[in-house]
Amino acid sequence: AGGKNQKDMASYKFWNTQPVPKFGEDEPLSDGPLRENDLSRVKTVGAELIEGFEWDTVDLTDDQQVREVYELLSNHYVEDSEAMFRFNYSASFLHWALKAPGWIKNWHVGVRVTGTKKLVAFISGIPVTLRVRENSLRCSEINFLCIHKKLRGKRLAPVLIKEVTRRCNLESVWNAIYTAGVVLPKPISTCRYFHRSLDWLKLYETGFSPLPATSTKAKQVTKYALPANTSTKGLREMEAKDSDAVHDLLTRYMERFDLAPKFTVEDIGHWLLNGGSKYEERIVWTYVVEEEGKITDFFSFYSLESSVIGKEETIRAAYLFYYASETAFSKSPDAKKELKVRLNALMHDALILAKKFNFDVFNALTLLDNTLFLEEQKFGAGDGSLHYYLFNWRTSFINGGIDDEKNI
Ligand code: NHW
Known about the structure:
This protein has 408 residues and is α+β, with helices and mostly antiparallel strands. It has helices at residues 63-76, 91-98, 156-169, 200-205, 217-223, 243-254, 265-272, 274-277, 335-356; strands at 53-57, 85-88, 108-113, 119-132, 135-147, 175-180, 189-197, 235-237, 259-261, 284-291, 294-308, 313-325, 361-365, 380-391. Helices cover 23% and strands 28% of the residues.
């Protein structure tokens, strides 16, 4: 975070004032809020912005306004540390991500130039119900915080964060979850990104993947080659009629972890079936395994391109999303091994499908049961970490996956 000493709380001038856990504090002995919630003290209007700028609520039912958010993010959103790649969230992705069931228009916050009405900053929230250990929390999930490059370093980010907090509080939502690549006070969990090349040559040519000193281009291409067809018996695309079964399986599977969203059947339809395929472009792919009329497993991945900065090129990345398998509930003495074998088979098929749909790389984090297959499926550790944060909630650090000692 800007090269400051990450453990020095005094250097976090803004975060110091917020209800978040601080570096140097002991792990809490019990879970709970950090600040009292009082609706009567929530301001009914936003704080004044610097001269020349005004607040706006971006209307994402209007394609033109979705386009404006797209333009802002595609030029100014997250880049890697060497400024070679920038996330390129598509307009369809924004429709999907920001209009999830129960979405609240007022939580799509923009800052515009008063004179020209140009959109120069954005932050968003969507409502989610989270389970953090044994507590169920009504949260907002904050994402897409972005400030135009010309307005950086002017302390506008704290103003945006306070404004979205106010708008969440107005709905009696007092907690939030968010992730970031930067270190802020104080992560409740940290995952590492892993990448599995699907088109190694393209990744090499765009500068995404290096050629290891001990290898050759031809060897790399061979290493990542995949068969043309999947091999899991009963694997097929998920359909709307599978929603109840997938919901049931995922709910049981997620009970094994300390931090998980609580989905309704409607959420499943939205997140896994592309919101009913109503967008221009396909964002999410979900496959189920059906055996004798029963859904035993499923996996999903979504599409998020990155643009190669300074070139007219993009890297098409598939991101592993939710999955679950009945094998996780096996009572056999070999249960762990069975799960490992099953997940490897499923993920191998996920890679084959992603390759078939022309993705260049398949990304996954060290969460859920991912460490059981990352190595075997030839994923390599990336440079980036993803830190998870909770606003106004104390809980002790959550380790990744159920199999910590095996975390890579
Ligand atoms: S993380 C992606 C964030 N976006 C980007 O990286 C895009 C490119 N960068 C930018 O647009 C996913 C700017 O650099 C941003 C900062 C806007 C990042 N989260 O205005 P100043 C999300 O969207 C702190 C939180 O001068 P700037 C999650 C920084 O530590 N804080 O900086 C978003 C410093 O505070 P400090 C961040 O470079 C979660 C202050 O901002 C941050 O012009 C938001 C400096 O401000 C980050 N990613 O603009 C929190 N990056 O204390 C939600 C920097 O150190 C909380 N900072 O002095 C919950 C609210 C809802 C609660 C509801 C109950």
